[in-house]
Design goal:
By secondary structure, this protein is of the alpha/beta class. It contains 27 helices and 21 strands. The chain has a seven-stranded parallel beta sheet with strand order 11-12-10-13-14-9-15, sandwiched between helices. Helix 10 runs parallel beside helix 11. The longest helix is centred in the N-terminal third of the chain and has 32 residues. The two termini are about 40 Å apart.
C-alpha cells in the first residue's frame, strides 16, 4: 500500500506542504509523527488577538491591530541597531508600528497598503513593537480568516527548531485535508443528550476557536472523550469481574463476634462501616475488588485482618502482600497476636526466610491448612496455594498493576483487597479508580488533635533539639529524617545527609542512644536497627524516608525533618504519621532552607492541617497531579486536556456512562460505537474477550 492509499489521519506529517525531513524530525521530538498526532497536539494557552479599539488595549500586553499605512517607513540607526517605524491609521486613531533589527521589513511594507500587526502595546509611546505582520487583501471574503491575527490565537508547545505560527499553519492544513476522515465515536443522540458538539467540530474549535464560548464547549467535548476512553477499559474489567463467580465467604454472627473480640481495641465507627462493606462483598458470589483509602493512623490493618480472617474461618487461606520486609514482619506479629486465640496460623515468607522454615510453611499451605500467609514479593513466587480465597495488597501504590494482579492469578475468583495510605481527594479517588470499589476510611481525630507541627529555619534547629532532649528525658523516642544519603547530599551541596546528621546528633544528644537507618544497609542490619528502636534500646533513629511507611513505634513522639522543602506534601504527611500513633502529645519539626514561593505555600499548608485528604487537595491545587500520579505505579495516564481537579465531574459522568456502555448490547452491535470498541481492544489487549455479550 502506498502512502497516498492509507487512511489520511495515519499519513506521516511530511504529507503536508511545508514539512520536510528536518521539520518532521523536530515534530517527532514532540511525539508528532502522523496527521492524527498533529491534530491532537492541543494548545496549552490562547492569546486574545481579536481586533479591538484602542481603549481596550492594556499597556504591555500583546495586541492585534489592523490599519492603513499613513506614511512611508522610516529607518533610524540608533546604537548600531536599525529601528524601523511606520505610522498606521487604525479606526480613526494614529499610532506607530516599530521593528528592531529587521531592515528587510521596509521592502515588505512597500508591497501592500493595509496590514495586520501583532505585537506588544506601549501606551506611553503609542506604538506597537511588532513580532508578526501580514497583509490584509482587498477582497477579504475570498482571502479567508487569518490564522495568526485578528482572532483567539492558539499557542503551542514547540522545540527550539519550531515556531508556533508554523504549527498553526500545519494544523490548519491537517484539518482541511483530514477533517472529513474524523469519525465521531458517539451517536448524535448521545451527543444531543449531553449537549456536546461533534468531534470534528470540537477539534477545529480547540485549535481555532470562533469565540470563547465555542472554545469552552470544544474543550468539554474532548475532555469527555478522554475520560470515556480512560474509563472504558476499567469499567470493562469491572463488569467482567462481576460476571465471574467466587466462593462465598459468609460468616455467622458468632464468627464475626469472635473476630471483634480478638482485637485489642473497639473499632471506630468508620472502621465498622468499611468492615460491613467488606463482609457484604465477601459473602456475595462475585469476587471482591475493593480499595481502602485511609489516612495515616486510620487503622487499615483491621480491615485487612477481617478479610483474611474470613478466608481462614471459612476453611480457606489468605495472603497479605507488604512492600518491605520490616512491614511484613510487623504485620505477621500483629496478626499472630490477634489470632492466636482463634487457632489460625500465620506464616511469614520473605527473601530472608530460612529454607527449613520455608519448607514447613509450604507443606502446610500445600496441605490446604486454613491460615494466613504474610510476606513480601516472595508470596508472588511458586507458593503451592491450596484453597486461596483472599489476597490483600498493602500500600498498593508501591506495586505495579501486574504485581497486584499476580495475587489473583492462581484463581480469578479470589477476593482482592488493596489498601493505600497515599492521600487522594475523596471524590477524585472514587472517579479514577474505575475498576474497583472504593472505601474511604476516616482518620483518627484523637491522634491528629494531639500532634502539632512547627516550622523552623535551619539556623534555629537548636530549638528543636532542646525539645527532643526534653522528650527523651521523659522516656519517649524520636526520629530525625534526612533527605539523602551521603553521596546524594554531596551532589546537592548539602550537609543534611543521613550520615552527617547521625554523627552530629550523637554529639548533640550525648547520654542518649542514637541509631542510623538507610536503604543501603543490609537487610539484617536494617531489621536489627528497627527492632532496637522499637524495643527502646535506641532512643533516636536518624533515617532516610525508609521509615515513611508502616513503621509503628507508639513511644515515638517527636520528629525532625531536615530540608522539608525537598519532600512532597504526601510524603511529609506520611512521615509525620510515624509519631503520636497511640494518641500521645507529639510534635513534628520541619526545618527548611531557602524556599521558593511555591515551596513556602506547601510548607504553610502542611503546618496548617493534619488531614491527609485536605493536604492532597491542596497539593493538587499547587502542583497539579504530576508527582503523585505515576504510570508505573498506578496506571493513570498523562491526559492531554483533562484537569483531574477541575474536570472531576466529567470523569465521574464518564465512569457511569462507560459502565452502562459495556453492559449494553448496543455497544457491541451498533457501528457508531466502532471507534470506542477499537480503543477498548487496544487497551485490554485481548480481542477474544470482546465478543458480543448476550
Amino acid at each position: 500500500m502506498t502512502m497516498t492509499e492509507g487512511p489520511i489521519l495515519d499519513r506521516p506529517v511530511t504529507f503536508l506542504p511545508g514539512i520536510g525531513p528536518r521539520r518532521a524530525a523536530a515534530l517527532e521530538q514532540l511525539g508528532i509523527r502522523s496527521i492524527r498526532d498533529l491534530l491532537h497536539h492541543y494548545p496549552f494557552r490562547y492569546e486574545d488577538l481579536q481586533i479591538r479599539g484602542i481603549r481596550e488595549w492594556e499597556d504591555g500586553r500583546r495586541i492585534a491591530v489592523e490599519g492603513i499605512l499613513a506614511g512611508a517607513p522610516r529607518v533610524r540607526l540608533g546604537g548600531r541597531v536599525p529601528v524601523i517605524t511606520v505610522q498606521v491609521e487604525c479606526r480613526g486613531t494614529r499610532l506607530y508600528a516599530v521593528w528592531f533589527r529587521q531592515p528587510h521589513v521596509v521592502d515588505r511594507l512597500k508591497q501592500h497598503r493595509r496590514w495586520r500587526f501583532v505585537g506588544r502595546w506601549q501606551a506611553a509611546r503609542r506604538s506597537v513593537v511588532v513580532d508578526h505582520m501580514e497583509p490584509v487583501p482587498e477582497d477579504r471574503d475570498r482571502a479567508g480568516a487569518s490564522l495568526h491575527a485578528g482572532r483567539i490565537a492558539p499557542v503551542y508547545r514547540v522545540t527550539a527548531n519550531l515556531k508556533p505560527r508554523w504549527l498553526r499553519t500545519w494544523i490548519a492544513a491537517a484539518l482541511k485535508s483530514g477533517e472529513q476522515a474524523i469519525v465521531d465515536p458517539l451517536p448524535w443522540q448521545w451527543r444531543a443528550k449531553l449537549g456536546l458538539m461533534g468531534r470534528a467540530e470540537a477539534l477545529r474549535e480547540i485549535h481555532f476557536p470562533g469565540d470563547w464560548e465555542r472554545l469552552r464547549r470544544a474543550r468539554e467535548r474532548l475532555v469527555y472523550d478522554e475520560c470515556l476512553e480512560f474509563q472504558l477499559p476499567l469499567q470493562y474489567i469491572r463488569w467482567s469481574q462481576r460476571r465471574r463467580r467466587a466462593r462465598s465467604l459468609r460468616l455467622t454472627r458468632a464468627q464475626w463476634e469472635t473476630f471483634l473480640a480478638a482485637l485489642p481495641f473497639a473499632p471506630t465507627e468508620g472502621q465498622r462501616r468499611v468492615l460491613r462493606e467488606v463482609a457484604g462483598e465477601l459473602a456475595g458470589d462475585s469476587p471482591m475488588r475493593r480499595l481502602v483509602l485511609g489516612d495515616v493512623g486510620s487503622g487499615k490493618t483491621v480491615i485487612a485482618a477481617a478479610a483474611l480472617y474470613a478466608a481462614a474461618a471459612s476453611g480457606g487461606q489468605g495472603v497479605f502482600l507488604a512492600p518491605t520486609e520490616i512491614l511484613a514482619e510487623q504485620h505477621a506479629r500483629t496478626l499472630s497476636r490477634w489470632f492466636s486465640a482463634c487457632g489460625i496460623p500465620v506464616w511469614l515468607l520473605t527473601g530472608r526466610t530460612a529454607e527449613k522454615r520455608r519448607a514447613a510453611c509450604f507443606a502446610d499451605i500445600a496441605a490446604g491448612t486454613p491460615g494466613i500467609l504474610v510476606g513480601t514479593h516472595a508470596v508472588l513466587g511458586d507458593v503451592p496455594y491450596a484453597g486461596l480465597r483472599v489476597a490483600v495488597c498493602d500500600e498498593q501504590h508501591r506495586f505495579g498493576v501486574v504485581q497486584r494482579m499476580a495475587l489473583t492469578r492462581p484463581d480469578e475468583s479470589i477476593h482482592l483487597l488493596s489498601m493505600s495510605a497515599t492521600p487522594i481527594p475523596r471524590t477524585l479517588a472514587m472517579a479514577l479508580y474505575g475498576d474497583v470499589d472504593v472505601s474511604i476510611l476516616p482518620g483518627r481525630p484523637d491522634a491528629a488533635a494531639r500532634r502539632t507541627t512547627r516550622w523552623l529555619p535551619l539556623d534555629r534547629e537548636e530549638d528543636a533539639v532542646l525539645e527532643v532532649r526534653a522528650r527523651l528525658a521523659r522516656g519517649q523516642r524520636a526520629y530525625v529524617v534526612a533527605p539523602a544519603i551521603g553521596r546524594e547530599a554531596e551532589h546537592r551541596r548539602s550537609q543534611a545527609d543521613v550520615t552527617s546528621l547521625f554523627a552530629s546528633f550523637r554529639d548533640k544528644l550525648a547520654g542518649f542512644s542514637v541509631g542510623l537507618l538507610h536503604g543501603r544497609m543490609s537487610g539484617a542490619d536494617k531489621e536489627r536497627m528497627m527492632r532496637a528502636f522499637a524495643e527502646g534500646e535506641i532512643q533516636v533513629l536518624v533515617a532516610t524516608t525508609i521509615v515513611e511507611v508502616g513503621v509503628d513505634v507508639p513511644e515515638a513522639t517527636a520528629m525532625l525533618i531536615y530540608h522539608a522543602e525537598r519532600f512532597g506534601l504526601s510524603q511529609l504527611h506520611q512521615l509525620r504519621g510515624r509519631i503520636g500513633r497511640r494518641g500521645d502529645d507529639a510534635v513534628c519539626f520541619v526545618l527548611t532552607g531557602r524556599l521558593t514561593d511555591l515551596g513556602r505555600r506547601r510548607i504553610e499548608a502542611f503546618c496548617a492541617t493534619d488531614d491527609g485528604f485536605l493536604l492532597a487537595k491542596k497539593d493538587l491545587e499547587l502542583r497539579g497531579p504530576g508527582e503523585w500520579i505515576g504510570q508505573a505505579q498506578s496506571g493513570w495516564p498523562a491526559f492531554a486536556l483533562v484537569d483531574l481537579v477541575k474536570d472531576e465531574p466529567w470523569m465521574r459522568r464518564a465512569k457511569r456512562h462507560a459502565y452502562r456502555l459495556v453492559q449494553s448490547r448496543d455497544f457491541w452491535l451498533l457501528p457508531a460505537f466502532g471507534p470506542l470498541r477499537a480503543h477498548l481492544r487496544r487497551r485490554v489487549g485481548c480481542e477474544g474477550d470482546l465478543s458480543v455479550q448476550g
